[in-house]
Automatic annotation (TrEMBL):
Residues given in the record as prephenate binding sites: R7, R89, Y107
Gene: aroH
Pfam families attached to this UniProt entry: CM_1
Protein name: chorismate mutase
GO molecular function: chorismate mutase activity
Gene3D superfamilies named in the record: RutC-like
Catalytic activity: chorismate = prephenate
Keywords: Amino-acid biosynthesis, Aromatic amino acid biosynthesis, Isomerase
One GO BP: amino acid biosynthetic process
C-alpha cells in the first residue's frame, strides 16, 4: 500500500451550520465515491474553511456520514485578497494501490475555478 492524498473543494452558499455541513457531506461523499475509497483506508482528513465561514466545524459532516475512526482536523485558510470566498477544502490522506494519476480530485460548485485542470 502507498500513502496518497486527494484534494477537494466546494463553495458554500451561506455561513450557516446547515449549509456548511450539507456542502461538506456532498464533497466528502463525492471524493469517496469517485475514488472507490474504503473508509478503513483513510488515514486522516484535513478540512479548511475560508474565514467567512465559521458557523460549524466541517469535520462534523464526516462524523455524520460514519467516519468515526478517522483523525480529523479543521483550520482556517489564509485571507488572500481576491481569493475565492465561502469555500471548504478537504485534503484526504489514504492508503491505496492507485497511482497519483489515477486519483480523482473533486472540485464542486464555484470551487471548480480553483483547479480547472482537475475538474472532470
Amino acid at each position: 500500500m502507498n500513502v496518497r492524498a486527494i484534494r477537494g473543494a466546494i463553495t458554500i452558499p451561506e455561513n450557516t451550520r446547515e449549509s456548511i455541513l450539507e456542502g461538506t457531506r456532498e464533497l466528502l461523499t463525492e471524493i469517496i465515491n469517485r475514488n472507490a475509497i474504503n473508509p478503513s483506508d483513510l488515514i486522516s482528513l484535513i478540512f479548511t474553511l475560508t474565514t467567512d465561514l465559521n458557523a460549524a466545524f466541517p469535520a462534523v459532516a464526516a462524523r455524520d456520514i460514519g467516519l468515526v475512526d478517522v483523525p480529523l482536523m479543521c483550520a482556517s485558510e489564509l485571507e488572500v485578497p481576491g481569493s475565492l470566498s465561502r469555500c471548504v477544502r478537504i485534503l484526504a490522506h489514504l492508503n491505496c494501490e492507485k497511482a497519483n494519476d489515477e486519483l480523482n480530485h473533486v472540485y464542486l460548485r464555484g470551487a471548480k475555478v480553483l483547479r480547472p485542470d482537475l475538474v472532470k
